[in-house]
Amino acid sequence: MTLDDALAWREEQRAAGKRVVFTNGCFDVLHAGHVEYLAWAREQGDALIVGLNEDDSVRRIKGPARPIVPFADRARVLSALRSVDAVVGFSERTPEVLIDKLRPDVHVKSSQYREEELPERDVVLQHGGVIKLAPHVEGVSTTDLIARILKSYGE
Asked: What is the CATH number of the domain that holds 81?
């Protein structure tokens, strides 16, 4: 979705009395940990919108070799998941600007973070939202997966 589409979608959800959950990330090489995380996030409300870091944003966060999968493909895969109702891209490193516009009821992050350390915390709370920390699956990450692939192929 474009930002305008996402805002219209959010207003439709609000008008229908639905509790909107937001989460965000790079979701570069989708794996079981991502799927479990997104399913947990979706259970926290009635509809889940995912803020997806655009390619330049991923490079700023993860380095010049990332993303492995381009934005359009990552968005398409995420959109196909049963737990995901909407996907919207954003170019910043962190999602404060997007959250300020969408005003979700619930913001989900992994429990590998602490709520008070989240840069988006104040924006979520100022709009009356709550933050929920999803269980983190240890040892399952895109970085770990890439390392295993490189080791398997002798790089």
From this structure: 3.40.50.620
